[in-house]
Amino acid sequence: MIDKFIKYLLAQRHYSEHTAAAYRNDLIHFCSYIGCEDYTLFSPSMVDNRVVRGYIMAMGEDKFAASSTSRHISSLRSLFSYLRRTGVVDSDPTIGLSSLRSGRRLPHFVEKSRSQMLLDSSLELSDDFTIERDSLIILLFYTTGMRLAELIGLDIDDIDMELMQLKVLGKGNKERLSPIPHIVKQKLRWYLSIRKEQEPKDMALIVSSRGCRISRSSVYAIVNSSLTLLGVEGKKSPHVLRHTFATHLLSVGVGIENIKELLGHESLTTTQIYTHNSIEELKKVFSVSHPRR
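Now predict its structure.
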């Protein structure tokens, strides 16, 4: 039953494999809680409102973060919503439950001085395929703000060098056009010329040393290594570069609506989190500079 739900998320809702796997893991965790060690044997009759509330309390006792608990509740709620729509159940034991409130965390980003160093080093050309590929990955994240899954999914055909734009397939299989900054053009052309030496096995833009589409873990490791060498502390992930892209655009006066379109957000509310970063920066400047601080 859970596997059918996961197939629905992939086929009908167009969720990514990564997101669908997260739903499956959450639901397997719930099955373990109710004593159903083999999740394929799960039955909705095992669950009522009392069980769900007990599950929430158990996660609290296990010191789950509020955000993590809320995600597990959301996964369970989505499952029972699906079961009701398909006529499997008549009632939903998750109705009436609300997600836990959690403090809104500001996105991590790389400060401008370090990001300029990252940009300068990434723009250098090399005859080494791995160096070129890794630096292009960094450049694309920082200059387009695309997501990890979006970068991995890029194909050669998604590049339009004449119009200087990329066709990006975002969440829910929604396409958007992302401009290629002029400074990236030479780098991209050079990478494409040496990519051929890897004898790529498909049309993927970013490939491994064996010519296959690069994996999520490999890209994550590349970004982590690059930011570590730069001396960046804290989180060092592709999403940090996405946050950096948005934060830096906002700091130079780019409108929030334009940033929303570039990031592929459905709601402006999601994009507005970056205004909080700018406010925090202003507070820092104020605390240091104001004569009556």
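The longest helix spans residues 66-85.
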